[in-house]
Amino acid sequence: MATLINIGIVIGTFLAMEGVAWLTHKYIMHGVFWFLHKDHHQKDHDDFLERNDFFFLIFAIPGIVCLALGNFYDYRIALYVGIGITLYGFCYFLVHDIFIHQRFKLFRNTDNWYFKAIRRAHKMHHKHINKQDGECFGMLWVPFKYFLESKKTKTI
Prior knowledge:
This protein has helices at residues 2-32, 34-41, 54-72, 76-100, 113-126, 144-152. Helix 1 (2-32) packs across helix 2 (34-41), helix 1 (2-32) packs across helix 4 and helix 5 crosses helix 6 (144-152). The chain contains six helices and no strands.
């Protein structure tokens, strides 16, 4: 029974992180920390790294703290929350940096309706080069219309 609860904590945390990512992206990255996020929308450099990449470190801190509390102080709930946060961060990296922005040339072509919807929604997000008037702030779950559009355009 304890194993099921621990798995539930990991899954629940992972799912909750999509909401945290949406809120943080909309109100912090497109708000007070726009100075870090701006170069992700307005490419003013040819460097591989962006100021926006600092968010990777900022968002890793809660996961690291939870993993440390769980491992060093035997606070098991924190450990499983940390695992959920870390898994979400890994998925975010795979979807955002590798799949969508092709920072590493992998997973370039897909006909999967889910991934096409994610990519399209993110393109709509990036059509706004300023911090105002943004849309599609989520990563793994985007407005339903993009899923419907991608289902209609799926090739056989």
